[in-house]
Specification:
Helices cover 28% and strands 25% of the residues. The protein has 287 residues and is α+β, with helices and mostly antiparallel strands. A six-stranded antiparallel sheet has the order 2-1-6-5-3-4. It has a five-stranded mixed sheet with strand order 11-10-9-13-14, with helices on one face. It has a three-stranded antiparallel sheet with strand order 7-8-12.
Length: 287
Amino acid sequence: MARYAYVNGRYVDHRLASVHIEDRGYQLADGVYEVVGIRDGRLIDEEPHLDRLDRSLRELRIDWPVGRKTLEFVIRELMRRNRLRDGLVYIQVTRGVARRDHAFPTTPVKPALVLTTKNSKRAEADAGAGVAVKSQRDIRWERCDIKTVALLPNVLAKQAARENGAYEAWLVDDAGCVTEGASTNAWIVTTNGELVTRHTDNGILAGITRHTLKSLADSLQLKFVERPFSLAEAKQAREAFITSATSFVTPVVKIDGETVGDGRPGPTARRLREEYVRFASVGEAVT
Ligand code: PMP
């Protein structure tokens, strides 16, 4: 018997079911899901599961991909087609397919809807002997050093920045220090001419551009320090800028509406950008 999945309006052979590679769920973890248990062909707690789905969607400002009544129908139809008596129904909704950018798409996008089912034995079969647990420190999600596709927090930060007319978000930790940008590393030039960026640990992504800039700063004999800097210090800084493979070295002229320095790209940032562009043009072109 073919097992079906439901993908954006169609019941398709599970083995061949696929979503677009630019789906924001796949690219950025910009989506939500629910799992509903099935026992003796009955949905368990369907209503609170769909209520929670509604809440999750609203929190992320993703529209329902189909009406709730339609979703209830699709769940049942998929169960029927898969002759599901005991198991699970997975419901996944993402913001949909759009040109890659952390911030939400600016043109309307249809949310993507995927349903799959899984057969399983009755739950009580596993419960008999009891199970073991292993304790783990709850680090969700303190591993910003991993360049993971789980970018939802970065997506939300970038979107908030864009909605406030800013290009990038600077993320501030509990101590009031700037860790990094939503998709860039953060730098300042202090009033005594020190080039400062936060040290690397699990709190930030060790940017490749950041690393290259360190050696460029070295060759320019700039005073370079890796340490935390506060948002207040950044606002008082002579210059600020961001680095990434996408933005190279980009001067920051405003933080939370407050002007940095004289409000224009500073000499250090401009010089480092020039050096970086020079560095980028070394070597043999592939195309
Ligand atoms: N921090 C984060 C969170 C990023 O997503 C990026 C972009 N990859 C960076 C920093 C900058 O890293 P890189 O210089 O390697 O592009």
